Each structure stands twice: as C-alpha cells, then as structure tokens.
Amino acid sequence: MIQQPDGSKAPTMADVARVAGVSHQTVSRVLSGHPNVSARTRAAVTEVVEQLGYRRNSAARALATRRTHTLGVIAVNTTLHGPASTLAGVQEAARERGYLTSAVTLRAATEEALTEAVQHLAGWGVEGIVAITPWRDAVRALAALEAPCPVVTVEGGHDMDLPGVSLDQHLGARMLTEHLLTTGHSTVWHVAGPADWLESEARTAGWEAALRDAGVEVPPLLRGDWSPLSGYQAGQQLAGRVLASPGRAGGLTAVFVANDQMALGVLRAFREAGLRTPADVAVAGFDDIPEAEFFPPPLTTVRQDFASLGRSSIGLLLEHIEGTAEGVAHHTLAPELIVRASTARREPPRD
Amino acid sequence: MIQQPDGSKAPTMADVARVAGVSHQTVSRVLSGHPNVSARTRAAVTEVVEQLGYRRNSAARALATRRTHTLGVIAVNTTLHGPASTLAGVQEAARERGYLTSAVTLRAATEEALTEAVQHLAGWGVEGIVAITPWRDAVRALAALEAPCPVVTVEGGHDMDLPGVSLDQHLGARMLTEHLLTTGHSTVWHVAGPADWLESEARTAGWEAALRDAGVEVPPLLRGDWSPLSGYQAGQQLAGRVLASPGRAGGLTAVFVANDQMALGVLRAFREAGLRTPADVAVAGFDDIPEAEFFPPPLTTVRQDFASLGRSSIGLLLEHIEGTAEGVAHHTLAPELIVRASTARREPPRD
DNA sequence: CGACGGCATGTTAGCGCTCACAATTCTGGA
DNA sequence: TCCAGAATTGTGAGCGCTAACATGCCGTCG
Description:
2 copies of one chain form a homodimer.
Chain A: H1 13-20, H2 24-32, H3 39-52, H4 58-65, E1 70-76, H5 81-96, E2 100-106, H6 111-123, E3 128-132, H7 136-145, E4 151-154, E5 164-167, H8 169-182, E6 189-192, H9 198-213, E7 221-223, H10 228-244, E8 254-257, H11 260-272, E9 282-284, E10 301-303, H12 306-321, E11 330-333, E12 336-338
Parallel strand pairs in A: 1-2, 1-3, 3-4, 4-5, 5-11, 6-7, 6-8, 8-9
Antiparallel strand pairs in A: 10-12
Chain A binds a DNA duplex (30 and 30 nucleotides) through α2 and α4.
C-alpha cells in the first residue's frame, strides 16, 4: 500500500499505537528493530503499520535524533561517462547504507561555485559530502573551506589533507606505455589532458616514468582539453610531424592519448592525413568508454571501474561520519589494461 | 562563515534571538523575509545570524511546515549522455527553485524496482517525483503505483494519465528522413531502438510517416538495443544486403539509425565491408552526443536539448505540487536537425 | 479626545518523533 | 514461597522550528 487516502493526512506513530493498542514508543521500537519487544507485539504493530500504510516521518526523526542521514555530492561534468558512472556508484552505495543523497552539478569548479554548493548542502543538513572535482585548485579550495561536515574527494589527489579515493592513473598510464614499448615502439608520444586536472597530471607522470625507466627519450608533450575536437587538433599536429619526416625521424609511431574522446579526434586526424592506425602510428586512449570498442579501429585503453570508485568513496565517507576513520586516508583502485586493434603488435625495428 | 566551532553544537534560532535581543519568532520572520519587520530589527538579526554562522535546521522546518521541499528523481542508464544531461537539468532547475533533489538510479525499470524506488523516496517525504523511464511498461507501472505525491515523466509518452515532458522524437525522425529523401535518396532504411522504448517507437513512427507522406516504399526494419555493438551487427546485415545486390536493388543508399551510438557501429560495419559513407550509403543518427561530430565521417543527427527537458519537467512538477496545474498536461520540445558529412548531398539518380 | 486600525513584536502550542527514565510484568533460583 | 534481575512496556520531555493568536504601540479620524 503506497497510496495515502488523499483527503485525510498521513497517519502518525500515535495513530498506529492507538489502533495496535500499545504506546507510541513501542511502535518506535518495532520500527527501529529494537530487540526487547515481544514477538506478539511486534507482529501486531507490523500489521497495523501495513494496514494503515504508515511511514515514519523523516523530518521528525531527523529532528529528534539530530541525524539527517543525508549525504551531498558535488560534481562537475556529470554528462561525461566517468563522472556519471561514479555518481551512480555513489548513489547506489549510499542508498544501500540507508542514506539519502543529493547531487549538485556544477558548471565550473570555481571557489565561488564550490562554496555555494557546500552552503546549499549544509543548509539541508547533510552529514557528509563526496566531491568529484578532479582539479588541484578545486580540491585546495574545498580543503580551505572547512565545511561543517566531513568531505571526501574522488580523484582529488593524495597530497591534500582531505581524505579521498582514486583510481591509480599513474599505474594505468605506466601499464599502457609499457605495453606500447614492449610491442616494438621506440618511444611513446603523449597527448595530455588539461594541466590543472589531477587525473591528467597523474597520467602524464605515469607515462613519463615508464619512458624513463625504459631509458628511452621522452618526446615533447601535446595538450588537449579532453574533447574530441582538441584531440583532433593534436592529431593534426602529430600527423604533420610524421609526414614531414617520413623516415620515422621523431620515432613517432605510438601515441598515448589521455582519454578516449580525444583519442577519437586523433584517430580522425590521422585518417584524414592518410596515416593508418596502427600500421603507421599506434594509438591508445584511457577510460574505456562504451564506444571505445567501436572506434576506427577499436581502441586500446585503460578501463576504470568508476562504479567501485563511487562505492568506495561512500565507504570512506561513512567511516568519517561514524567516527571510525583513522586519520586522512586515501584509497586507491587498480585499473585494467584493455588491448585492442589500435595498438596491434609491431615488428621490432630492423637494424 | 561556514565552519561550526566543533566542540559546541550548532546555534539555534533561540540563540540568535537571545544575542539579538528579540524573540525567536522575529528571527524566523527575518529569515523568511516577512514584510512586517522594522529595518533596524532586520539588520540586527541579520548581523547576529552572520556572526554566529547560524543556519536554519531544515528538519525542524520541514516538521513544522509539513513541507520537505525535496524532490525525487528516478532514472535508468544515467551513464548515457541523454539521461545524464536530463538529470543535470532537473537538478539545476530544482535547486534554483529552492528544492533538494535526490536521484535514484535503477539498473532496470522493473515494476519491483520502481516500487522500491518510489517507496524509498516516499520514505524521505519527497513532495514530487520526476521519472526518467522511457519504457511503456515502466510508465504504465508508475501510473498504476499511485504514488503518494505527484509524478511527472520524461519521455514517458503522452497516452498515459501521468503528466510529462518529451522531446518531439516523431518530428525529429521526420525531419531527418525528409532531409535524406530531399538529398536524393529514393528511400531510407532504419535501424530502430528496442521495441519497448517509447523514444524508439516515436522515432520509428516519424520515419515511417515521412516515407509514407513521400509516397515511397517502407523498407523492412532492423532493430538494435542502442549499443554500438548492436549497431555494428545491424550494419553488417545491411552491408551484406548492399553487396549482394550491387545495382542498388533494395534502394539501400541511406540509413537512419535511431541513436548515435548504434550509428557508430553501423559506420564501422560499413567501413569493414568496404562501403563508403556517404558515397555508397548515407548514415544519420539521433541525439547528437558530443562525439558525433568526430565520427568517421562526422554524423548527421538530431540534437536534443536534454537540459531544457529536465528543467521543463521540474516546472511541470512544481505546478502540480503547488496546485496550479490544470489536468494532466504534456509539454513537448522541438529538436534540431544537425547536418554533417555522413549524409552529404547526393546526385538525383539518373534514369 | 477617545476609539480604531495597522504595524511591530511576543507568547503559546504544537509538528512527529526518539531518548531517558519509570513502571510493570515475567522468570528462575534459594 | 518470595525476591532479585531481566524483559517488556509506558510516560514525559524535548529536538528547533512555524502558525496562530495576543499584545503593545503609533497615528488618524469622527
């Protein structure tokens, strides 16, 4: 029974108590699963609750317990695959644990917008906030804000004094770069994401570390803004370079693009320039968006388990809310390398 | 001042009243913008509020006013571009109007899951629900559920007795089909979405109506599940057909694919089969996802303003909550045709 | 000059629930 | 048989706020 007889207002705990012939407190005990209630009473109350379609008033509960059981989420770019998946994971995990979540989607993670978002959520009495704001500046601003409740970051980096969860971007980039090196490329070029994104930074660092460890030259960096268009532009530059020095002068035979969407742009630029992928230049992306498997050609990439990331952030947040957290913890999840046709095996260069 | 001095608990309205030397009711009046308060008093109270970092307790307010100012959103597939954008629009609009939103992301829109979601939201006292569940069955189940608050659907069709907002899918499909017919194709094939999706149905209907109006043959329908893979498979079938009858036997020179992701799959299948787009077969999609512009080749598609759709749903919902709604209204937004390279102009067939 | 209406403010009584404690009943062992 | 102690249930007092009414003050009009 979901419906409320529309004329009369919703039944209260007192109504249930009266009908069941017990005190309102006993009803409360039954509903909270308190152990010391006789099976008889419990059954009687439960039946009346069903019959009346009674539902506890969460506002009254929140007032009496001083617990709202509400969490806030602050996110940007929620229309992209990564943030959207993370958000879904956060919401599902929170719901399972008995919390209501409310998400605030920002257009830009300025300090002002962040402050306003935190104020908005604080006004609703959230007990904690998950911030999916992967910029160094945003995380810094958030840390400085001193919100009235615990805040955990997602992809917020490990060097701030805010607890957080991340996928190991550095490792993913390293795996990908090493994959390219072991499949016959003398070095790997890189189209990075925006400089102020922590994810971008970590991917670049992982790429560079892998190259250095292998003792190979680190080519100059190109930068995009995650969009297919910026990837396309970077791709045009790279293609120009390849065509200008046909003898593989720059060793430009493999490109690690910092996300799949930009990789799509790079692929298009290469195709337009008459470069074949992977025969002339291998291309790899990052994220494994659902479309990646159907790119021309299917894209080698690094899969990120965004849903687990979201769930994990809720776990960490609740530790803080419930006071069982020790210090400022950071959780890290491992990514997975997905090899597809865009980086097909290459013969080692002949001497 | 965001931070609460951690040791002591948050100040109450009574605290503010005491410091400002007025009654708590006057503080309440100031905070609610009640007109009958002297400027002097108002200023004094405002200052104390600032100074103490006071924030009204929303639970207490909800209890006293019997208004939670909370809305629920039920959505499925929130990781896709369309639903995610709609969700963002819903949240932003609700926040602007002073409401808190809480989203429940379902894995599947079964009757059971829907019931549970509505129960969950009802338990939190939401005053209304926006349902982004574009299946006929889901909308039917929702209508039968008799939720304890108003429910509006997004893309829920116009034939149920639930108010809703939609983009005009029928018109969009018609525009696209007519575009293809006027650019020299004798007919247009169609890869539809799943049969139980209302959007899919409307797009198919629009396509068929355009063909009939033009007095041309309606080719058999292929069906996918929105995924690139299903598009790929449909594309393989279509390619096989073209190659089997090189003389354009089936008039298969143009395909309208029901969404951009499947179109990506179709494009790949055509490319693999040696068919050129648009020279051999023109391809068009639907949705205008951000990647569509970078497909090989850039995809002609129909742009949908999901954000406006979301905002519009909130407008409608609030009309129902505030009692100003007249009957079961349906709002419709017009889509926009985006012509790109995948349907480049075609010479009229020579006789 | 006194009654009256409008403005500014205060007082009181809940909203529906949980907490702390009190009261009652039931159990088993001396 | 009686009583300590546990199990079960009830009572009263808020949680922090708003709605409704009550009060006091001013100027104004008959």
